Amino acid sequence: RYEPLLSEKDTTEVAVGGDDSPLPDDLTRDSLELPALSEPELARHYTRLSQMNYGVESGPFPLGSCTMKYNPKFTEDVAALPDGAVHPDRPDDSVQGTLAVMAGLQDYLGRIGGMDAVTLQPPAGAAGEYAGILIAKAYHEANGEERTEVVVPDSAHGTNFASAALAGYDVVELPSAEDGRVDLDALEAAVGEDTAALMLTNPNTLGLFERDIEEIAEVVHDAGGLLYYDGANLNALLGRARPGDMGFDIMHYNVHKTFATPHGGGGPGAGPVGVKSDLAPYLPSPHVRERAGGSGYERYEPEHSVGKVHGFEGNWLVLIKAYAYIARLGDPGLADASAKAVLNANYLATQVDYEVPFGPFHHEFVASAGEQDAADVAKRMLDYGVHPPTTKWPEIVGEALMTEPTEVESKRTLDQLAAAFDAVAGEDDATLDAAPHETSARRIDQVAAARNPRLSWQALDDGS
Amino acid sequence: RYEPLLSEKDTTEVAVGGDDSPLPDDLTRDSLELPALSEPELARHYTRLSQMNYGVESGPFPLGSCTMKYNPKFTEDVAALPDGAVHPDRPDDSVQGTLAVMAGLQDYLGRIGGMDAVTLQPPAGAAGEYAGILIAKAYHEANGEERTEVVVPDSAHGTNFASAALAGYDVVELPSAEDGRVDLDALEAAVGEDTAALMLTNPNTLGLFERDIEEIAEVVHDAGGLLYYDGANLNALLGRARPGDMGFDIMHYNVHKTFATPHGGGGPGAGPVGVKSDLAPYLPSPHVRERAGGSGYERYEPEHSVGKVHGFEGNWLVLIKAYAYIARLGDPGLADASAKAVLNANYLATQVDYEVPFGPFHHEFVASAGEQDAADVAKRMLDYGVHPPTTKWPEIVGEALMTEPTEVESKRTLDQLAAAFDAVAGEDDATLDAAPHETSARRIDQVAAARNPRLSWQALDDGS
Amino acid sequence: MTDNDTRGSPYAPHTEAETATMLDAVGVDSEEALFDIPEAVRFTDELGIEPESERAVRRDIERTLSRNDDLTELLGRGHYDHYVPSLVDHLADRSEFLTSYTQYQPEVAQGFLQALFEYQSMLVEFTGLDVANCSMYDAATALGEAATLAQRVRSVSGDRVLVPAHLAAGRRAVLENYADGAGVTVEAYPMDDGAVDTDALEGSMGEDVAMVYAETPTVRGVIEESLSAVGDLAAAQDALFCLGSDPVALALLEEPASVGADVVIGDASTLGLGRSYGMGLGMFATHEDYLRQVPGRLVGAGEDESGRRAYTLTLQTREQHIRKERATSNICTNQAWVALRTAIHAAWLGPDGLVELAEDCVRYPQDLAARLDEIEGVQAPVHDRHHFREFLARTDQPATAVAADLRDRGYAVHDVGEHLLQVCVTERTTAAVDGLVDAVAEVAP
Amino acid sequence: MTDNDTRGSPYAPHTEAETATMLDAVGVDSEEALFDIPEAVRFTDELGIEPESERAVRRDIERTLSRNDDLTELLGRGHYDHYVPSLVDHLADRSEFLTSYTQYQPEVAQGFLQALFEYQSMLVEFTGLDVANCSMYDAATALGEAATLAQRVRSVSGDRVLVPAHLAAGRRAVLENYADGAGVTVEAYPMDDGAVDTDALEGSMGEDVAMVYAETPTVRGVIEESLSAVGDLAAAQDALFCLGSDPVALALLEEPASVGADVVIGDASTLGLGRSYGMGLGMFATHEDYLRQVPGRLVGAGEDESGRRAYTLTLQTREQHIRKERATSNICTNQAWVALRTAIHAAWLGPDGLVELAEDCVRYPQDLAARLDEIEGVQAPVHDRHHFREFLARTDQPATAVAADLRDRGYAVHDVGEHLLQVCVTERTTAAVDGLVDAVAEVAP
After folding, report:
1. CB burial of residue B92 (10 Å; 0-12, 13-18, 19+)
2. D1 vs C353: CB contact, 8 Å cut-off?
3. Is D45 helix (H, G, I), strand (E, B) or coil?
4. Domains of chain D
5. Which of D69, D99, D428 best tests the A interface by mutation, with the highest count of A CBs <10 A?
6. In degrees, to the nearest 5, what angle opens at C-alpha B378 toward C-alphas B389 and C331?
7. Neighbour count for residue A123 (Cβ, 10 Å)
8. What domains can you pick out in chain B, each with its CATH number?
9. Confidence of residue A464 (pLDDT cuts 50, 70, 90)
10. Chain A contact present for C2, CB below 8 A
C-alpha cells in the first residue's frame, strides 16, 4: 500500500508579511508553501511509514561492523528525564547533575578502554576519529614535528581514510596480509618519520584479532607515530582486552555499537575519544573534571586543547543512554555481552552453507557468496523476513557477507537466520535477481535514481 | 507470518520453596511454569503482535456507537506525569493536585451535560449505568417507593438491559416506532407506578434525535420515574444540547467515546455519572468537593450515598486524559467536534451506495446491506484496508451497517471509506464469503471456536 | 494546525473548502442546519470552558499535580507499587494496541487477542484453575461478579455470602451492591490473630451460604494458613469458595486450585500498572464447569479458513450485547489494555523473577517489622503470622498523631485504628526503609 | 529474567543449555576459548563497574540529574527551546524508526527514507535552494563542511573564509578545525550595531576569499537587513555565500535563495528537539550545481521493479564508505532521527503555525526588551535592530553580578560582556517574563 507524500495530501501556501507582521515586508519572505495537515492525519502518515521500516525489534539485524544490538527501553526513559533537559550555557554550579553524568561516563569509558582521559564531545564515530586525529596532529606539532601521513589498512572503515584527509593528512593505504591481518612487513615499509598515526580496528573487519598488536605498536611508536584505535569492534573485547593495554594511544568509542544506543535510522550517535595521559592536554574544550576538593564538577579548557568538533558538547541524549546501559550491565554484564556476541558469531558461522574463510572469529565473520552476487543474496534474504548482513565488504573476501549477530540473538533466531542464508544459497541467480518480493518496495533501481537525482518533492516530475 | 505463543518459545518450570524460601513449604506452591524469555525477545514478540492489530492510527475506524476518535498524544504524556502516580489512601491534604483535577473534571462534565453533580468513580460506561440505576433505586427507596421496573427501548445498548438487571430490576423492553424513535404510545403503556426509570440514548443508535424528548420526560416524570441518559452518543450534541436541559435526571458519560481517551483494545474506560441536584446526596462515596472557604479540595461521603461501584475511585489514568482533552478543546473545540462529527456522518451517508433509511442523522447512520450479509460486508471491507462499521445492529434496520466516522476523518478519508463500501456493494456473495484475504488471519470460524473452547495455552490440543 | 489555534477542534482536519464541499453534497447551508434539535432543548449559552493550547494544558496540569505532596508512600491495602519495567510502557503504548477497539473483527485484531490469550494462560498457571477471563474492572467488582456467579451456578439457592471481618472497606462496599441486586446478603466472619477463624467460620456455615470468600494475603498482609480448611467448609455446603489474591502473591503461595478455590479474584495490576490512584485490573478465574456463567470477555483459540491457528472472542452469548438482561454481567468496556501490561510485566519477570519478587514481598515486611519492633512505643507485627508486603504495627501514641508526624517527615503510612498503623514495603520503597525507621524512632516514643 | 539478576547481560537470551549446545557446535569447551587474544594483552583485572538493576539505574540517574538547579532558562545563542508537541516523541519513538539502521537496504526502509525525503523537501522550501542533505551533526559542523565545500567547488583556489565578528565561539572553533584541514584561514569581519558592516566587509573581500558567512538572526538575535548586499559582495569575487539560519526563522525571513545564498546551514533542531544540552541537527542546503560535492547523505526518489515510486540513498559515491579519503566528508552516522523529529514538528505546525511561531519570535523579544528598558539601570535592546528570540541588554551593574542575582531568583540569562546580558524568550518562557522583569527590577538598579 503506497503512502502518499505529505505534499501529495496537501500543500497550502500562506502569505507572509503584510500589515499584521511584526517585520517590514522587505525583511520577510513572500509566502510559505507546505502541507497543512491535522494531527490525526500526521499520526497515521508516520505510523504507516514506520510500518514500512525494519528495526531491531522487527527481527535479527546482523549487519557486520554495525553492531545492531537491542536498545534497552529504559535508556529511553532515562534520556527523557526533564531534569536533563538543560541549556549548555548554564554555569557549572547549576548543572551539577548533568556534569556528574558526563564525568561518570568519562570514567566508565576510560576503564573499559584502558584510557586515561575521555572526551564525550564528538557527535559520532567519524567525528571521534577526526577529533582523535586532530589530537595526534596537535601533539606532533607541539613536539615540533611536521608529520604528514596517516596509515590505514585497506580493510579499514572508509571513515578512517576520510577523517584523516579532513584533518589535512595524506593517507597511506596498508595492504592486508594473506591471513586477513596487518602485514608487518608492509607496515614497516609504510611507517616512517612522516607517519603521524596508524589507525587500526581490532578485532578487524574480518572479525580477526590482530595477534601481532604488540609488534605493530612497537613499529609505530619507534617511528614516532601514534596508534589510533577505531572502536567499531570493541564489542568483541569488553572486559577481556583493552586498547589502552595493547599500546593504543587514542581511541574512539561507538556508543551505538558497543553500548546499545539506538541508531535512529542513521543517527544520532556519539563518538567519545579516549587518550593516554600525555595526550590529555589536547582534548577538545570544554572537558569535564571533578573539582579540586571533590566539591562537584566543572568544565575547563584543556591546556593544549584542539578546540572543538561540535558547537556545544556533543549528543547528550545519546550519551546518557550509553551511561545507563553501562551502569546496568557493569563488569559481569559487559563481559557476558562480549562472550555471547563472540559465541553467536562463531555458532552462526558453523551453521551457514556459504564458505567462511579465515577465523577464528570474534564478534563477526565474513562469508563468501561465491558464485552468487552478495548484493542479490541480501535482497533475497529480505524475502525470508530477516535483515541481511553487510555485503561486498571488506573486499578481501569475494562477494563478502559480513555477518555480526551480536549477543542479543537467541539460538532460535540464529537458526532462523542460518536457514535463511542456506535457503538463498541453494537458489539460482534468476530467483535472486528478482528478489525481493515480500517487502514494501520491490528491488529499487539505484543507478537510475542517481542518474536523475530527484531529492525533494519539488523536484518530482509530476510536481506532486 | 505466524507469531508463536510465548509458551511456544519457552516454558521453564522453576521449583518454589525449599531451604532458601522465606516461607514454610506447606504455604508455598511446588513450582511455577511460565515462559522465560529475554527483553529483546519480548520486544519483538509484542511488536509483532501490535503489527497484527488495527488501531485508530492504522486508518478509519467507523464503528457506529463506539465513537472511535483519534486519541491526542499529549493526553498520554499528561497521564504519565509522575506527580499523578499516588496512592488513593493518602489523606486529602497530601493529594490536593489529584483532587483539583478530579474536581475540575467534575465541573467540566457538569457543564457539558447540564448536570449539577458528577461522580468519576464508575470505571466504564456500563459501570456508570449501574451506578446511575443504583442512585435511582436509592432515591426511590428513600422516598418509600418500591419500584421494580426499568424501561429500555429495543434499540438500546445491551448494557442498559444488563445494568438494570444487575441492580435487581425487571427490564421492560420498549418497541421503537416506525420512524426509529421512541413510540410515545408504547411508552405511556409501558410506564407506570412500577417504573423506576427509563433509560434512553439521544440521539439514538440510528443517529436520530428523539424530538419528543420533552413529552417523553413528562410521561416518565408524571409516573414518578426518573429519566436516565446513556451518554454513548453525546458526541453529537456537545455545546448544542445538554441532557440536563432535556429533562434527564441521571446520565453517564463515556469518556473514551466523547472525550477521546483510547479504548485500549477493550478498555479501560471511565463512566462518570452526572445527576440533578436532588439526586446528588446519593452519589457514590467518596465524592470530591471544594472545601468550605475555598482552601482546596476534600473527599466526603454523600449523605445518602449508594456506596461504591469501584474498590477505590475509578480509572484515574483515563479520567485525566479526558480532563486534558476537554481543557484543550474548550467551548469552541467541543462544539466544532460535534459539528464535524455530524457533518462527516451526513456526508458519508450521501456517498455510499447502500440504502440508508431514516434520517436526518446526527453522528452516525445505519445503512442496510440489503441482500448482502452485513457481517460478510464487514469482512470484505477489511480487504480494502479500512475497518468496517458495526454490523447487524440495531435490528430495526435489516443487515445493519451502523457507521460513525467521527470528526477526525478528513473528506479524503471519507471518500476512501465510501469507495470501500461501494466496491463491496458491487460484489457477489461468493467474494464476500471468501473474505478477508489481506489480513493477518483469514476468516475465523467463531462457531467452531465456541463449540470447543480452548482458552489458554494449557488447553491447546498440541500442548504447546 | 497551529497550537494556539483554539477556534475549533484541533483534531478535525477539515479545511473551509472541504467543509463547504461536504455541506453541498449533503444539501445544507451550514453545519448548524444538520442538528435536528427542537428549539426548546437547544443549548444556546456558553459552557464556559476556555480552550487552551496543548502546551498550556500540559503546563497547567503539571502545575496542578505538583500540588500533591512529595511523600514516600508505604501504602498498600489493595493498591500496590511494584516497579514496572520500562518495556511495559513502550510496548503497550504502541498505538496499534492502545487505540484499538474490542476485537469484534478478529481478523485485524490477532495481536491483541493473542496477548489476551497469553494473559489468560498466565492466570491459569497462577491459579491452577481452568479458565480466566480477560479482565474485570478491579478486585472489588470481580468479587461482586463472583457473588452473582455463585448465585447462578449453585444448585440450591442461598442468600448469604460470608466474607472476612478484615476486608478493605471499598471491596466490601462494592460487593454489597452486587449482592443486593442478586438478592444476597453479605456477612462477616471473625478473624483469629489476623487470619480466618475457621471454628467461627464453621459456625456461620449453612446450606443458605452461596459463597465463602477469603483472601491471601489479607488486607492486613497476613498470609492465610488454613485455606484448605476454608475450602472444605465451603465444599461441605456446596458453597463456592472464592479466594482473593494477586499474581505476585500467587507466584509463591499455595496454588488456589490445590486448596479448593472455585473462583479466584484479585487485582492483577500489581503487575504492570504501579501507583495509579487505585486503578486496577480485576482478575477472574474459575472452573471449566462454570465456563458458560463466567462474566466478561473470553479469548479462545480457533482456526481461520486456511487452517492456521487464530484467536477470537468466544462464548459471546454470555455477554450483554447479545443476552441483554440475561447476560452473566453488564460489563462491556473492561481493562484489556491493563491486562496487556500485566502480561508483558509477567513475561519480563519470567518464573524466576516472579518467585524472587514474591519472596522479597515476604522478606521486606518481616525485616521492617522486626526493626520497628525494636523502637520504643512500637510493637510489630501485630499479628504473629507470615506477612506479604505489609503488616500492622501497634503504637503507644495515638496512630493518627504518629501518622501525621511521619507525614511531616515525608512518609505516608496507613492509620487504621486508634493505636494501629499499617506499613507496606516493596522493592520500590525498600531503599526508603532506613529513613522510615529513623522517623518512627523520632515520633513513636 | 529477573531485574536483580546482574550475573550477565540481561539482553543476551541464552539459557545455559543453549550456550552449551552452541559451544558444542563450534567445537570449544567454553566461551573463553573463543577469544583469540594473546596472553600479554589480556585484561584480567576488574573494570570496577558494579552492575545494577534497571530500577536502580533509573533511580540513581534521576537522583543525579535532580542536582541540576531548577532554573527558568532564558538562554539561546544557538540552542533554543521551542515547545515540541507530544506527537513528535510518540511517533519518532516507534521502534521501527528509532532502532533502524542507515537505509542500505531501501526495500525495507521505505518509511524512514520517505520521511527524510520529506525533510529535505521542507528545507528546500525554507531555503529556496535546490537540494538539502538529510543531516549534519549540528550548525557548527555544517558550517565547517560548507567551508570545505567552498574549497572544492571554487574555480580558483582561495584560502580565506570571512565570518562575522559576532559569532558563537563554539561555531567558530569548529569551523577553524575544518578550515585548517582544508588549508583555509578564518577571519572575522566587523559588525555595525550588531549587523554586518557591509563597507568593512567589502574592504575585506578579495579573490582569495573562498566563502563569506553571515547569519540571520545573528548569535545576538539581530535580524540582518543587508543580506542581498553580502550576497552581491560574495558573488563579485566568485566566493560562496553561506548563510546561517534555522527553520523557524526561515519561515518568516527573506528566502535565502533570494538574497544570493549558495549554502544555508544552521540548526534545524530548533524544531523537534527542545533543550538537550546543545545537541542539534545540522541543516545543509545548496544549489544543484554543487550536488556532487555535497557532504552527507541524500535521499532520492526512484522506482522499484514494479514501476512504483520508491526512495533510496543516492549519489553515495560522494561518501566515505565508497570514496574513502576523496569523499566529500568523513560523516557516516548523522542525525537522521532528529531530522525525522524536525519534519514531524514542522508538519504539525504547518505553514500557518510556522509563520505564527516565527512572528512570535519577533514580538516576544521586542516586548521584553521594551519592558526591561524601563527598568532603572538597564538599556535594551543594545542594538537598534529587529530581533529574533533574543537580544542584548546593557546593565549599569556588572553583568556577572546581575546574572548571578537573577540565578538566585530562579532565572538563567547569558552574561556576555562586562555590562552586557543576553536574554532569549520563546513561547516556552513567555509566561515567565513577568517574573523575570520583576527580578531584574530588583537586582539591576
Report:
1. middle
2. yes
3. coil
4. 16-65 (no CATH), 72-83+350-443 (3.90.1150.10), 86-344 (3.40.640.10)
5. D99
6. 55
7. 37
8. 6-51 (no CATH), 73-327 (3.40.640.10), 330-450 (3.90.1150.10)
9. very low
10. no
What pLDDT digit, counting tens, does each position of A178-190 carry? 888 999 999 999 9
Query: Would the CB atoms of D13 and B37 count as touching at under 8 Å?
Result: yes
The DSSP code sequence of B110-177 is HHHHT-SEEE---SSHHHHHHHHHHHHHHHHHHTT----EEEEETTS-HHHHHHHHHTTPEEEEEPBP
Q: Which of B52, B63, B449 sits opposite C101 (nearest CB)?
A: B63
Strand partners, C196: C191
Q: Record the cell numbers describing residue A11, joined without a space.
A: 500543500
Partner residue opposite C253 with nearest CB, options B27, B326, B434: B27
Largest Cα–Cα separation, chain D: 83
Whether residues D137 and A339 touch (CB distance < 8 A) is answered with: no
Examine the predicted complex and report whether its ipTM is higher than 0.85: yes
pLDDT tens, position by position, for chain D (445 residues)?
456 567 899 999 999 999 999 999 999 999 999 999 999 999 999 999 999 999 999 999 999 999 999 999 999 999 999 999 999 999 999 999 999 999 999 999 999 999 999 999 999 999 999 999 999 999 999 999 999 999 998 767 789 999 999 999 999 999 999 999 999 999 999 999 999 999 999 999 999 999 999 999 999 999 999 999 999 999 999 999 999 999 999 999 999 999 999 999 999 999 999 999 999 999 999 999 999 999 999 999 999 999 999 999 999 988 888 888 888 999 999 999 999 999 999 999 999 999 999 999 999 999 999 999 999 999 999 999 999 999 999 999 999 999 999 999 999 999 999 999 999 999 999 999 999 999 999 999 9
Q: Under DSSP, is residue D306 helix (H, G, I), strand (E, B) or coil?
A: coil
Residues in D touching B77 (Cβ below 8 Å): 86, 89
C188 vs C163: CA distance, rounded Å: 5
Q: Residue C275: which of B35, B87, B378 has the nearest Cβ?
A: B87
Q: What is the pLDDT of residues C209-242, one digit of tens each?
A: 999 999 999 999 999 999 999 999 999 999 999 9
To test the contact with chain A by mutation, choose from B2, B9, B41, B440 the residue with the greatest count of A C-beta atoms within 10 A, namely: B41
In contact, D399 and D420? CB cutoff 8 Å:
yes
Label residue C404 exposed, middle or buried (CB < 10 Å: 0-12, 13-18, 19+): middle
Query: What are A26's three cell numbers?
Result: 522587505
Of A29, A57, A448, the CB nearest to D254: A29
Q: Hey, what amino acid is at A76? A: E
Specify whether the CB–CB gap between A88 and D276 falls below 8 A.
no
D53 in Cβ contact with C430 (< 8 Å): no
Query: D305 and chain A: CB distance < 8 Å anywhere?
Result: yes
Of C61, C176, C178, the CB nearest to B324: C61
B40/D11 CB distance under 8 A = yes
Rounded Cα distance, B98 and C62, in Å: 11
To test the contact with chain D by mutation, choose from B73, B75, B408, B410 the residue with the greatest count of D C-beta atoms within 10 A, namely B73
Which residue on chain A is closest to D330 by alpha carbon? A162
Residues 14-43 of chain C whose Cβ lies under 8 A from any Cβ of chain D = none
Q: Which residues contact A255 (CB under 8 A, 6 or more apart)?
A: A261, A269, A270, A271, A272, A318, A319, A321, A322
Q: How far apart are CA B190 and CA B170, in angstroms?
A: 12
Q: Are strands A117-119 and A273-275 parallel, antiparallel or unpaired?
A: antiparallel
Chain C residues near residue B242 by CB distance under 8 angstroms: 43
Q: Does an H or E element contain D55, and which?
A: helix D54-65
